Amino acid sequence: MKAAVVEFPGSNCDHDAFEWASRLFHIPTELVWHTETHLKGADLVILPGGFSYGDYLRCGAMAARAPVMDAVIEHAKSGGLVIGICNGFQILCEVGLLPGALLRNQGLAFLCQDVYLRCETSKSPFSRHVGKGTVLRLPIAHHDGNYFTDPKTLKRLQREERILFRYVNPNGDVNEAWNVNGSLDAIAGVLSEGRNVLGMMPHPERASEAVLGNEDGAAILRSALKTLEAAHA
Amino acid sequence: MHEPEVTEALALSHGLSAEEWRTLLERLGRTPSFTELGIFSVMWSEHCCYKSSRVHLKKFPTQGPQVLQGPGENAGVVDIGDGWAVCFKMESHNHPSYIEPYQGAATGVGGILRDVFTMGARPVANLNGLHFGSPNHPKTPALMRGVVAGVGDYGNCVGVPTVGGQVFFHPCYDGNILVNAFTLGVLRSDRIFRGSASGVGNTVWYVGNKTGRDGIHGATMASAEFSEASEEKRPTVQVGDPFTEKRLLEACLELMEKDVIVGIQDMGAAGLTSSSFEMAARAGSGIRLDLDAVPLREEGLTPYEMLLSESQERMLIVAASGHEEDVKSLFAKWGLEASPVGSVTDSGRAEIFWKGEKVADLPVDLVVDDAPAYDRPALERRDFKERLHLDLSTIPDCRDPEETLLQLMGSVDLCSRRWVYRQYDHTVRTNTVAGPGSDAAIVRIKGTSKAVALSLDVNPRYCRLDPYEGAKHAVAEAARNVSCSGALPLAVTDCLNYGNPEKPEVMWEFRRSIEGLSDACRELDTPVVSGNVSFYNETNSEGIYPTPSIAMAGLIEDVSKAVPSHFQQKGDAVLLLGRTDGHLGASEYLWAVHAVEKGAPPPLDWDREKALQKLLRDLASEGKVHSLHDCSDGGLAVALAECCLGERSRLGVTASLQARSHRLDELLFGEDASRALASCSPDIVQPVVNKAREAGIEATLVGTVGGDRFVVNVDGQRLVDLDVGRLRSTWENGLKRVVGG
User: Fold this and answer.
1) Is B218 exposed, middle or buried (0-12, 13-18, 19+ CB in 10 A)?
2) Do A16 and B429 touch (CB under 8 A)?
3) C-alpha B29: how far from its chain's center?
4) pLDDT digits (tens, 9 = 90+) for B279-318
5) How far is A110 from chain B (nearest CA, A)?
6) Beta bridge pairs of residue B457
7) Per-state percent for chain A, helix, strand, coil, to nearest 5
8) Which of B92, B484, B597, B691 could form a disulfide with B439 if both were Cys (CB 3.0 to 4.6 A apart)?
9) What is the pTM of this model?
């Protein structure tokens, strides 16, 4: 089991994601620079948060065209696991591995706060061991996290149970007041058709340690790790 | 090249005084060229050479076993043990932020980040102190929105969490807002880099952004008063590019891992000029610059413009010869240019060439070390003694304590800052143990069990009424906040914001502040390791209140012992540590409720303050308390309410107090110094009380945590009985009257 964290110029959660996998989960992890064309044999690829290329164009649009993305696409197409967090989610949408787009937050301001997420399906490597209906508290920190897609795609995502996380209130109910960035159908995280690619706006890597007062985020990587180990066994 | 003829009139229009012009001519022995005059005008400006403050800043205690680098470098460095150190500094970006709030504030953050990473430290925490005008002033909302967005967007993009700070409103800032930005970085204590140009023949590298015409004479702008016409100075405000900053930061830190860098410095105020002259001055060397090699954003820049440009995100690096390819390829990896623009000499002069012509040839020491320094006349403020006198008989006691408490909790100075810090990424880098809203921010140091605690404080009202006592309080409160988190205060950086120093009353305020800060830092054993002075915060001759922002850094050896500020557990006992005399002078209550700004700030007794802070740290390290909260602005009732308003906690409190005088407001809203609220398990109340008494600190059981109501009884009479939800919504909506929604 190996992990890779892709680094673009302007990524700023690359070290956090690296530590999440390597220090907290003891997964052998490599940093992969955006100009590289191989993922160093990784089973799990993490596209970290940040502001790739400054996000001076549409968020993630530049990164989607970086040389390393061909390798990421190939990895995803062959069933390899990919997690895109925050800017990583935006990049996955830009490159077409996930449907939809992340628009500017309703209210137009950058939002940094804790949110509550409900796990909507256990049918994915990232949630198999989290459990449907589980409510997680995780931090967000983004300007463009307002998920949007066309009605047809939304229907399909709902039908295929590809909405992995929704913003909810602390009791686990969808409620517009708690859908702080205004996402369509309160969507916080979605899965690819093959269910091996996850994009999510909240930051599980920032909430996986007791010293930071919150370990809810660990569940997602733990689930992916267990799934991979079971597959390798 | 056609250049204006250099005359005394031109020198005066560059901001030099007639006397400075005469000194310059005499020392140089000739008339300077136009380019040279530009160099003198910025290097001898208040902003760059601290001519009105230098003689006074020498009074600061700056030494201590913990100090690895004191003032004089780009930032201070403090030892935190086991081979680790922290590097920090605070700087103002007041004038640009008033003219163009978004970019002014953003570039303020950019500048302070560079000051810290140039020392070899990775920035891990930002703070900021923001002072705006009256909430009713028509400009305040737009200035506040712009500044907060600018601070946020820059720090968020670079990926340095903004973990705390201060926001204060007062009409004295109507025409001069303050934006004070602080950065702390972490480094190995044996890997400190300095801004020194040594080693004859070593190459001088220019890295980062290209040079444009932005910011020319920004330093000179910051060295004069404002008037209505100042808004025409918008072109002197620079534009920030946080993506380039992020790449520059990573590239510099990566280059620092190789043994290539001899010296490095940010091109901040006065850009290429100040960085090259100061680096040569520190090394006692000389420098030769070839301006033809300076990367330009547009064609046709003159040497004068290249030397004075304050384009952002640029650094000057002196690298050991033979490593040219290392430098170039590393910056290329990050998509940045590195251009050799000169070399280190032993001439003691800065020789600057352009198109085969020597456009400047100046002795480094004349420009840097011999810059003017003044001991300007100081005169006690005319109304000083009169305003210290407070006649309480003219002020009615609060008749409805519940209503008064709500009024205070919703007031712009005491209400929740969530609208502000929600726009700052405060969790990136996964070190934030306690973020905004806590007495002190707590940032753990990865790879160790340690954490640093940070607090930024000043009460401008105290400073206006008594600049000496106000300065003492700023340091004491910052240290108390840090101690409440369980940390030992180590050192401070300051950002000293004042009016026009040529006015004796302003100079008196400044001198008294320096004395107060110096005495406080000596008492608390927290030397000043870096800082910044911002004068001329005046518009149409109206100066701001003296505002010495203090940022204190403290150390927690074992982060698991860090203590939160808010109540944690139902059933816990609440103890008030420290003595309540009911001091109302200079209080938030008098200002917010009675619109009175009079009276002396609360007396501050150092023995008591130090004993209290040691007690707080001991209680924390022994694991005896569940929360500790400083009791200051707004007094005891406000502090109790704040303990119920944690980000996630929903705990009320029932407090029972004994009146000390016939006035309720003295008990509830008096701001006696050296007090804190502790909560602990009810079965260890007696040991905690005993421990406090041994330390010479009064400890009174004042209440019990729990329920969903905020109740205050005085002498058995229920005076406040509020739903905590109502208290919270009043507190959370306080800023709406300024920024809406």
Assistant:
1) buried
2) yes
3) 41
4) 999 999 999 999 999 999 989 999 999 999 999 999 999 9
5) 5
6) B550
7) 30, 25, 40
8) B484
9) 0.96
